[in-house]
Amino acid sequence: MATYFTIAAGLELLVFFHLQVLVKARSDIPHPLTSTKTDQRSHIVSPTHPNHTPKMSTSTEQSKPTMTISRQSRAGVPSINGTESMKTFTGGTVWVDLVVSAPGGELSVANVNFAPCARTNWHRHENGQVLRVTAGSGWICDRGGQPVRIDVGDVIWCPPGTVHWHGADDDSYMVHQATSLGKAEWLEPVTDDVYKAKKRS
Questions:
Q1: Residues 55-82: pLDDT tens digits?
Q2: Can you tell me the distance from the alpha carbon of 182 to that of 194, in angstroms, rounded to the nearest whole number?
Q3: 138 HSE (CA, 13 A, CB side)
Q4: CB-neighbour burial class of residue 48 (10 A; exposed 0-12, middle 13-18, buried 19+)
Q5: What is the pLDDT of residues 100-117, one digit of tens each?
Q6: Contact 42/56 with Cβ under 8 angstroms?
């Protein structure tokens, strides 16, 4: 029993000594948020707003890290009226805020705001699409399938080549973030009869 306690005490002292060495060694490393040396990586321009540079802290106090905020304001960047300019929506007004668009149409990310009853045309995506509902409620439907209700927090994967539509409910706005992979092929509008059939599903 005495040997056990001696070994245990020795291990505790060894661990304590090791931690003290680590603490002393790291005390010479400046905190990343309080270092007075400029980190070039902190000045990367936001892809959403090419003319915007994140505001960085100018604090030089080593003991008081400060908050860093990267502004994502859309000031001066108008939303797109998808119903009028894109001709790929029907049933109501749809506003589109483009977040990211890669050259050649390989990738696009957009926040899409549907008024009640508004929906996309039938369409498909070359390499699929991910939808994440951030406000309101709506519906999504594959060609030949039954409409399925979608709500805040739902994440939907639309496989490559699957013909589908999605949009808001009759009495609710819906906002979703759409990440589209590859080119989209837009087809005919979703008729009122097809849209109303969701209530019977």
A1: 554 555 567 877 755 456 666 678 888 8
A2: 27
A3: 30
A4: middle
A5: 888 887 899 999 999 999
A6: yes
Token reading at 88:
């790929």
Whether 200 contacts 194, CB under 8 Å: no
- Is the model's pTM score more than 0.85? no
Is pLDDT larger for residue 48 or for residue 103?
103
User: Burial level of 86, CB count in 10 A (0-12/13-18/19+)?
Assistant: middle
CA distance 140 to 87: 19
Helix residue ranges, H only, 2-100: 2-26
Per domain, the residue ranges of the chain are 80-200
Res 14: pLDDT: 41
3-state secondary structure of 194: helix
Q: Are 140 and 108 in contact (CB under 8 A)?
A: no
> How far apart are the C-alpha atoms of 143 and 74, rounded to whole Å?
35
Phi, psi of 31 (to 5 degrees): -70, 140
User: What are the backbone angles phi and psi of residue 57, rounded to the nearest 5°?
Assistant: -70, 145
How does DSSP classify residue 147? -
Tokens, residue 9: 């005490």
Indicate the class that CATH gives domain 80-200.
Answer: mainly beta
